[in-house]
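Morning, I've got a small favour to ask if you have a moment. It would help a lot if you went through both lines with me. I owe you a coffee for this, so here goes:
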Amino acid sequence: MTTLDEEDRREYYRIDDMIALQIKSLPAAQALGKEVLLDDSPLFNLLSELHLSEFESQHLLRQLGERDRTLAAFLKVQNKRMDLLSQVMAQSLLGEIGAPQPVIISEGGIDFQHPTPLPPGSHLAVKLVLMPQALGLLLRAKVTHCDPKGSGFDVGTEFESMTDAQRQLLARYILQKQAQERRLAREQNDGLDT
């Protein structure tokens, strides 16, 4: 029999991915807060803010495109330039955070390997750098399970207190990765058929 928590987590599409990930314990006061977490790294905070502001302006760009195509085209080019800058910033951050590692991620949480046990119910700050979009997110998470696996531990978490923009950015990233996986599978199947 499945619990309500397990059913809630299953409503999200999960993907296997390789991402740069950094985990820190969160003090109780910060764990219960609703404000967006800030990182010690100003570069990471800038990267996060860049994507959040780009996301928040998308509807304005669409409205502008309906009225002035030339201006909308110019702004799309500027947006592309900012995307390239964010990729440069993300590459710099990978040195700080570490090499990408295998995870299972969804809008609801993330599963990862960790060298030390993390007690279920404990609160974490989870720093993610998702490539190639160079998306930087710092999210609150609660440990749902921690099981021994090999020389470390398999840790499952559930995201908490995400803003709508954070949730939608993560959902868009997951949908893009899912579409990319389907495209690659289709290309491989087409290659086998010829």
